[in-house]
Design a protein that fits this description.
With about 230 residues, the protein is an alpha+beta fold. The protein has five helices and twelve strands.
Length: about 230
């Protein structure tokens, strides 16, 4: 995975104490695709959100839970973070959905831990099946993950748009990589979002005599800046 994609990743689902549920909605199967991710939000009963958070520890979302290392290569891990009165806890399970039920590399205790986590995530994901119509999520802060633009022989010639935000390239996101980040909020954020809404994933952005590629990452309600993207790598 390219560093810009890793830094710009979004959680599959984010649930907040006030009942907001934020997910990425459908995107058109075209190339180049839209520059902005299609984030949507629905509201659930805050009590339902609280109940899910309280069940997280019993599901294994706590430090020290051993999910094992299954005998499956080149598959993603599933990361789950829960914030409760007991603090913030993050766990990761390798090949949670891809590993065989009888994988000999996993102990019975590890299999049981994985089964509990999968059942919990099934309950979490059922929330997205609500009949409530989602609305577009409008972030208070929009982040831009920036890399130097590299021309390709792409048959779809990209357009160049003048960058309307803070000076590029911004602050470093990864050591040893030409990967940086800037954010915009308020009126400037609205201007950046308006420009991004007209752009594609392969759009070239001009600023200061240079050309850049940008991956847009709307910040979630619990995020405040580029440091959150750095922490999520």
């Amino acid at each position: 995975m390219a560093p810009s994609m890793r830094s710009g990743r979004l959680p599959q689902i984010s649930i907040y104490a006030d009942g907001r549920v934020i997910t990425e909605g459908p995107v058109p199967a075209i190339y180049p695709g839209p520059a902005l991710p299609n984030l949507q939000v629905v509201m659930i009963d805050p009590e339902q959100a609280r109940a899910l958070a309280e069940k997280s520890a019993a599901a294994g979302v706590t430090e020290g839970t051993d999910f094992g290392q299954p005998g499956v290569a080149d598959v993603p891990s599933t990361q789950v973070t829960a914030v409760t009165a007991a603090g913030r806890h993050t766990v990761a399970a390798e090949a949670l959905n891809e590993a065989r039920a009888n994988d000999s590399a996993l102990t019975a205790a590890q299999q049981a831990a994985r089964t509990k986590l999968k059942a919990y995530l099934d309950d979490v994901n059922k929330i997205t099946l609500t009949k409530i119509a989602p609305v577009q999520y409008k972030p208070e802060i929009i982040a831009a993950v920036v890399t130097p633009y590299v021309a390709t022989d792409d048959a779809v010639r990209p357009e160049t748009i003048e960058w309307p935000g803070a000076a590029l390239p911004g602050e470093p996101l990864a050591e040893g990589a030409e990967l940086t980040c800037v954010t915009a909020t308020g009126e400037q954020g609205d201007t950046v979002l308006a420009a991004a809404a007209k752009a594609k994933t392969n759009t070239a952005w001009g600023h200061g005599g240079n050309t850049w590629s940008i991956r847009f990452r709307p910040l979630l309600p619990d995020e405040t800046g580029c440091a959150d993207l750095k922490a999520g790598q």
